[in-house]
Amino acid sequence: MRQCRINPSILSADFTNLERELHRIHTADAVHVDVMDNHFVPNLTIGLPVVQSLAKVSNLPLDVHLMISDVDRWGPGYAQAGAASVTFHAEASAAPVKLARDLRAAGAKASMALRPATALEPYLDMLPELDMLLLMTVEPGFGGQAFLDLVLPKIRRARAAIEGTGLPIALQVDGGITAETIIRAAEAGADVFVAGSSVFGTADPAAAVETLRHVAQA
Ligand code: DX5
Ligand code: ZN
């Protein structure tokens, strides 16, 4: 079984005390930060100033997920802010190859996300430009939604394509990940798992992270 990483989403954390919330997930591999602009998705969260502040206090790498329009313009600023990885949506980028290169040039890992109904195949040739591919397993915008099993075949095809490149490209899933659904996502080939409500919705988020990792690697 491949090495699995668990990145809790602070979308389900207490926004009035994010620094304390980071300590509650000290067992995580990275912290997933959901940036929403109420345009690409029908919800509004945080932006660059908060990510800059998080980067200063976080011991965990920042896995920034941009659910914003005009991402070609705004994306590199998150890399400059200190994000370890920056994920943009293919649907929101006019020039995804250029953006991926801009993110790497700014010092971050480049990652691209696809909504559940966005086809993988048009993007296969640009896999070598990416350090990570994110396949959304819910429609982006809100935490607490149910995992979409219809994405599983796309996860399998993405895993096969990644193996075909011979490159260490991570395959992330985000949305509806629980100790039950993570088994199917891992079996299909995902190796980085974002979990919001199933981590922060428990009394012991650090233990929930360890449980998810254990189940995914079983
Ligand atoms: C949804 C976000 C997710 C969200 C996942 O658009 O991108 O990262 O926080 O939340 P859960 O794990 O509750 O589905
Ligand atoms: Zn996310």
Automatic annotation (TrEMBL):
It comes from the Bacteria. Substrate binds at residues 9, 65, 141-144, 174-176, 196-197. It catalyses: D-ribulose 5-phosphate = D-xylulose 5-phosphate. GO terms for molecular function: D-ribulose-phosphate 3-epimerase activity; metal ion binding. InterPro entries: Aldolase_TIM, Ribul_P_3_epim, Ribul_P_3_epim-like, RibuloseP-bd_barrel. Binds 1 divalent metal cation per subunit. The keyword Ubl conjugation does not apply. A divalent metal cation binds at residues 32, 34, 65, 174. The active site is at 34 (proton acceptor), 174 (proton donor). Its cofactor is Zn(2+); Co(2+); a divalent metal cation; Fe(2+). The keyword Zinc applies. CDD domains: RPE. Pathway: Carbohydrate degradation. Gene3D superfamilies: Aldolase class I. Catalyzes the reversible epimerization of D-ribulose 5-phosphate to D-xylulose 5-phosphate. This is Ribulose-phosphate 3-epimerase.
